[in-house]
Amino acid sequence: MDGSILLYPSPGRGHLASMVELGKHILDHHPSSSVTVILLSTPPPDTHLISAVSATHPSMTVHHLPAIALPNSDHLSSSPANFILSTFEIVRLHNPTLHQTLVSLSKSSAVKALVMDFFCNAAFGVSASLNIPTYYYFTSGASGLASFLYVPTLHVKYPDSFTDLDGPILMPGYPPVSPRDMPMAISNRSLKVYSYFLETAVQMAKSAGLIVNTFDSFEASALKALRDGLCVPDGATPPIYCVGPLVATGGGTKGGDERHECLGWLDSQPSRSVLFLSFGSLGVFSTRQMKEMAVGLERSQVRFLWVVRVPPPHDEARRMLAEPEPRLDSFLPEGFVERTRGRGMIVESWAPQVEVLGHGSVGGFVTHCGWNSVLEAVCHGVPMLAWPLYAEQRLNRAYLVEELKLALSVTESAEEDGLVSADELEERVDELMRSEKGRAIRDRVLAMRDAATAALSEGGSSLSALAELIGLIKAGSSELDVPDLV
Ligand code: UDP
To answer: Of the candidates 366, 357, 463, 395, which has an alpha carbon nearest to the alpha carbon of residue 142?
Structure first.
């Protein structure tokens, strides 16, 4: 092709996998394009995912940035706020090597665009200084984007941190949300990470365009608010390209080519009878919560496939980064595994989620509302029970449950630090799998699945948006602002 498109993902698995899907999608539909994925040296990239891509899409080039010196390893702390902070800062530390890389790549092929994850915001100055058109790929939905771009407005509108507010927060394109639904990273203004999000939202509104993993008819109200300019302070939203739903295929396992045993187990279950419970790449629960879940599942008598991880050592403080090896007996009720054998299956740590959701025996999905999980459920027509844990997942729940009516929700106990009781889970599971309300949700999700297929078919909104984007990128300038190149 006449020039290359550079993708700059952040390292979190969901973000990286989604960006890689975008690269594959561009090459599948515009095969004359040249796509290069630029990877940070720290933390080390997911090699399984990268080698799987190289096998299926050898034309996608992967460029590893050279290693950088980390000034302070405390920044790699595993607490969620520090994890997010360190991601922003590590990207900034890579700026000099990114600059060299962009200049050197441009010598072999004109650099037509840099498409980056929002965590890579610090790189905006680098691409802007080289006169490279810069796009953001937003791996969450249009509703998430609407709330993100609205942060600078909220900053002025509400003088206090969201943690200090009582009343609902009003945002364009959204149902009213509780301050507790706002992502932790932007809820407390005294945290440094808040200023990074604020800065990123301001910068995104100045980009060449925002590419979103959604489709037009899925999040219509949020998209209208975005396109009407209601989410940015000056009303000038960059062009929005809804190119999704992009859902990873074939990468659902963490290694090995063999069919996962849970898929064989699903083969032997009745159609749409199994409830699948999975909470993203990072979700974990306290021991107490795990026991409540087990009791609720057992009482509900529903068939289930449950991805479990060992609770973190300081249960209540963290809901991320589980230890690798669960010891089931230590955190599930005594005898639970034996009593539910046959109608329930436990998978430790990781299941091939996309394949599971696409299996005809699965009839419901208890999800943490990570955006990839939501899209995977929609693409396979599986109704959801929303149980958000971190990041923007509570906002996703509000949109899915109240605006789209594609999910039911668990109610967390305000008195008991967000605990979902066994009774509550039992009732909601029953409602999702057996009630008229559950059936209505299934019908809506199935209609949305068909809309997703239409968006991704020839002439559909998502392929048209991609064609428009690639056309603009190819037609753009190839000149880098680098004096020593002339
Ligand atoms: N996933 C999986 N197996 C698991 C847990 C997660 O394959 O046991 C995949 C899931 O299919 C999705 C991704 O990991 O593609 C999680 O992304 P999401 O945006 O839902 O959540 P995050 O991990 O970013 O919180």
So the answer is: 395
